[in-house]
Amino acid sequence: MKTALITGGSRGIGAACVRAFSAAGYAVCFLYRQDTASAEAIARETGAHAIRCDVSNPDAVRAAMAQVAAHLPHVDVLVNNAGIARQQLFTDVSDADWQQMVDVNLSGVFYLCRAVLPGMISRRSGSIVNVSSIWGQVGASCEVAYSAVKAGVIGLTQALAKEVGPSQVRVNCVAPGVIRTDMLSAFSQTDLDALADETPLCRLGTPEDVARAVLWLAGDDASFVTGQVLGVNGGFC
User: Fold this and answer.
1) pTM as predicted
2) Start-to-end CA span in the chain (Å)
3) What are the backbone angles phi and psi of residue 31, rounded to the nearest 5°?
4) Most buried residue, 58, 101, 189, 198, by CB count within 10 Å?
């Protein structure tokens, strides 16, 4: 049985990934930061193992990996999904806001990749899928910090793919467009309708749309795909 470790798995895209990988027959562990009730519900629903972890803390990641080892013999697939977003003017971004954005959205990806890669390299097998954003590709007004770190995820993905490719480890990235998750909670229905109108497929994306793309990139059907950024955006931008 193949195995998967998914970060940010208690809600949104992460929860959809937990469901998709579990349904596909993977043994799954997922990390979550604070919503224990949702994490436990997803675990009961899917049979996956929920582990609390703040991915922005390297010591917490090391501790979580010790717990993962109690449930999984190794990690075949890593999905780096955990992230935060914040809409604010660039001149209003505080030092703490910036550092948190970097720590969660970019450093967290680094810490998890660093944790699983020795095993993948030694087995000469493994797949990492990082979740970036369309704003990491084209940038967004009032989301400069978020856009910057998500662009960093793309750079990390493409460089790491070249470094570990000779070890038969693949590293790819999905760049979701406007997806119906909690990150849109601050938007009015009018705003959401306008975003749907701007999308050529005339709707917003769902977490399941992204999860299906992640599952494909992680699996054998994408065995000759690495270093790529797959837009899941309905044609937006």
Assistant:
1) 0.96
2) 39
3) -100, 145
4) 101
Q: Which domain holds residue 129?
A: 3-232
Q: What is the DSSP letter of 77?
A: E
Looking up residue 73, the CATH number of its domain turns out to be: 3.40.50.720
Whole-number pLDDT of residue 78: 99
Q: What three-state secondary structure class fits 60?
A: helix
Q: Nearest CA to 6 among 56, 68, 85, 59? A: 68
Residue 237 within a domain: no
State the DSSP code for 166. G
Q: Residue 17's pLDDT is what?
A: 98
45 domain-assigned: yes
Residues 107-132: tens digit of each pLDDT = 999 999 999 999 999 999 999 999 99
Number of structural domains the chain divides into:
1
Q: What positions carry a catalytic annotation?
A: 146
Q: Is 6 helix (H, G, I), strand (E, B) or coil?
A: strand
Helix (H, G, I), strand (E, B) or coil at 165: helix
Q: What is the 3-state secondary structure (H, E, C) of 170-235?
A: EEEEEEECCECCHHHCCCCHHHHHHHHHHCCCCCCECHHHHHHHHHHHHCHHHCCCCCCEEEECCC
- How far apart CA 91 and CA 54 sit, in angstroms, is 27
Q: Residues near 19 by Cβ (< 8 Å), separated by ≥ 6?
A: 42, 45, 46, 211
Burial of 195 (0-12, 13-18, 19+ CB in 10 A): middle
Domain membership flag for residue 115: yes
For the record, the structure tokens of 15 come out as 């929860």
Residues 6+ apart with CB under 8 A from 38: 10, 11, 15, 32
128 falls within a domain: yes
